[in-house]
Specification:
One of its GO terms (cellular component) is endoplasmic reticulum. This is DUF1736 domain-containing protein. It is built from 22 helices and no strands. It is an all-alpha fold and 522 residues long.
Length: 522
């Protein structure tokens, strides 16, 4: 199942495999002296993801040296003029993450049920089905097109792969103790420290990777709690699994805190917040706390909708101009958009309560932790971020969604065991949904094959963005210039007309957008 899922993930990336550097790829690679190898490796450690010094006021403050290092290796291998090499690495990483998600779902399903004396869980039916559903769901999810099809998405791919390895190592610490008993403390500590180092490496690829330790702690507690259900103990006594879980969590927390302190003290500008504009995140500049809270909650609901129904996707979800930025704000509790926010938050709260109250719901607890914790750094809940919504930040949370859907599917399959017709209907529904997602994923990957297609798709999906139609107009003007150089005057004229239409659209969205007016000669 894992191999099938990995193959599907790789095949779906084919439309964008020969795509050029587009959108954020240009400043991250083509204009980044660190990625191009124009600076020393030591300087790479002191600059942000886009090549600016972290101590500078205009720094993005995104510290991802391991990701930049891999981009630099790509440049050394084949140069920046061959984007296919970058895409091949991204495709391979995406396939590896997909296979890991499939294997994780299978392992979690096999962990269910009562345990025998040695503490080894029996394998219930549905493990293979869970692996197939999780892998196929993750591989075919259209929201991954930006992370897998865009070169900048390398950060998400690396962070997700290392985060999954971190969780696996952390849970290996408990297995070490169950095998060796009290003599296994050294091995247990070694596994925990290895997990912390993997989480640190994930964070050096993308900031979301730091949440891997939190996911690992939840996963360890959920698995140990499920394994201990067969043991006899008095109701008021401390569960036998709890001291070990607390010991591992304490060691991981201390090591993680030490790494955070080192990062803040040793990296220039590591503790300073990023300065951004209202165009980047208009909610952060709202005066009232209630407005910010309701607006942020609605953005969470929009992210949830993208995970559940990725029908409209765009490379940019920002809003241009004060009038459009105001449309993103919710200033009254009577705004209908609060209903969507309340629905999402209520659903998460109910599922969390069920996971806490049901020891055997370890799959639910782990799936929710992978869904929610990696989303925290980009949710505005901890600190303001420099974007309204970014699809590539949903790459890691979608792992949690895939695990949850796989668990629900396996449970439904088990419940329908007496009914052959019911099982066939369930598999048919899964196949239909997978085919629909596969088609949408292929179409979205195809938009990353050219700048014009990407920006045109973004302009259709996000009517508040002036950047998308403007960028489309510029890309079409460049294509027209190339046609003119080759003597295709008629083709160049058609492209120029389309370019002017896009620029006029950008001015309709934001009448004060000077770059569009300048390109139109107004």
């Amino acid at each position: 199942a894992a191999l099938l899922a990995a193959l599907l993930a790789a095949l779906l990336c084919l439309p964008s495999l020969r795509g050029p550097l587009v959108f954020d790829d240009v400043p991250a690679v083509a204009s980044n002296a660190d990625a191009l190898g124009l600076r020393t490796w030591w300087q790479l450690l002191r600059n942000d993801f886009w090549g600016r010094p972290l101590a500078a006021e205009d720094s993005h403050k995104s510290y991802r040296p391991l990701t930049v290092a891999t981009l630099r290796l790509n440049v050394l291998a084949h140069g920046v003029a061959c984007p296919t090499g970058f895409h091949l690495v991204n495709t391979a990483l995406h396939a590896l993450v997909t296979a890991s998600v499939s294997l994780a779902a299978q392992a979690l399903r096999r962990y269910g049920g009562p345990t025998h004396a040695e503490g080894v869980a029996t394998a219930p039916s549905g493990a293979w089905a869970a692996a197939l559903v999780a892998g196929a769901t993750f591989a075919a999810h259209p929201v991954h097109a930006e992370a897998a099809g865009g070169i900048v998405g390398r950060a998400e791919l690396l962070a997700a792969l290392l985060a999954l390895a971190c969780v696996a190592c952390y849970c290996g610490a408990a297995r070490q103790m169950s095998r060796q008993g009290p003599r296994g403390h050294v091995g247990e500590l070694a596994w925990v420290l290895l997990a912390v180092l993997l989480a640190a490496a994930a964070a050096l690829c993308k900031e979301q990777g730091a949440t891997a330790i939190g996911v690992a702690i939840v996963a360890d507690a959920a698995l140990e709690r499920a394994k201990a259900q067969g043991a006899t103990s008095r109701r008021r006594q401390m569960p036998k699994w709890l001291p070990g879980a607390l010991r591992r969590a304490s060691a991981a927390s201390v090591a993680t805190a030490a790494l955070i302190v080192a990062r803040v003290r040793l990296v220039p500008g590591g503790g300073r917040p990023r300065v951004f504009s209202a165009e980047d995140n208009p909610m952060a500049f709202a005066d009232e706390l209630s407005t910010r809270a309701m607006s942020y909650a609605h953005v969470w609901a929009r992210n949830a909708w993208l995970l559940l129904c990725p029908s409209r996707l765009a490379a940019d979800w920002g809003a241009a101009g004060p009038a459009n930025q105001e449309k993103l704000l919710i200033r009254t509790a009577l705004d209908w958009r609060n209903l969507a926010s309340a629905t999402v938050l209520t659903a998460l709260a109910v599922l969390t309560v069920v996971a806490i109250r049901s020891p055997r719901r370890h799959e639910l607890a782990i799936g929710l932790s992978v869904l929610a914790l990696p989303f925290l750094p980009c949710s505005n809940a901890l600190f303001p971020v420099g974007f309204v919504l970014a699809e590539r930040t949903l790459y890691m949370p979608s792992i949690g969604l895939s695990l949850l859907l796989a668990s629900a599917f396996a449970d439904a399959l088990e419940a329908l065991r007496p009914s052959r017709r019911g099982r066939r209907a369930l598999w048919a529904a899964f196949i239909v949904c997978t085919c629909a997602h596969t088609t949408r994923c292929l179409l979205q990957h195809a938009t990353w094959a050219s700048p014009e297609a990407l920006y045109a798709a973004g302009a259709r999906a996000n009517s508040l963005s002036a950047k998308m139609p403007y960028s489309c107009g510029v890309a079409l003007a460049d294509a027209a210039a190339e046609r003119t150089a080759t003597g295709d005057v008629h083709g160049a004229a058609l492209l120029q007309e389309r370019s002017r239409a896009c620029l006029r659209r950008a001015l309709e969205v934001h009448p004060g957008f000077a770059p569009a007016a300048n390109n139109l000669g107004l």
